[in-house]
Design goal:
The chain is built from six helices and no strands. It is mostly helical. Helix 2 packs antiparallel against helix 3. The chain starts with 9 loop residues before the first helix and ends with a helix. The relative contact order is 0.14.
Length: about 120
């Protein structure tokens, strides 16, 4: 049985087309911006802050803004929590985050899910 969504949605096609036209430096810039968005969170992680702490809201809002800018659309709380799961399973992301601190990937995903839960209506 094939996938129910064999044809990508227009938004997926649009994003793939944008990525195809993205130059090598654009991709590097996006990941540099991701690192800028996660560095303050990594500092909170290193300081022993709980991922559920409300004081992380400004840093998580900055990360969420990066996601929305990269996706070129709003990131709902449900999508943000889903992205946290992707961070845990996609080696490209987990490798980047673990370079910021051993255990940071799990901590970041937990923080993102807690933030998403607070943003839910």
């Amino acid at each position: 049985m094939g996938w129910a969504c064999a044809t990508p949605s227009p938004s997926v096609r649009t994003r793939k087309a944008a990525l195809a036209t993205m130059g090598e430096n654009d991709g590097r810039d996006a990941f540099a911006e991701l690192r800028e968005a996660t560095t303050p969170l990594a500092a909170r992680f290193a300081a022993g802050c709980s991922p559920e702490d409300d004081c992380l809201a400004p840093e998580l809002d900055r990360h969420l803004a990066w996601v929305e800018e990269t996706w070129n659309r709003e990131c709902t709380p449900m999508a943000y929590a889903g992205l946290a799961d992707l961070y845990l399973t996609a080696p490209g992301f987990s490798d980047r985050f673990e370079a910021q601190g051993t255990g940071f990937t799990l901590w970041l995903a937990s923080a993102m899910k807690a933030h998403a839960a607070r943003l839910m209506p």
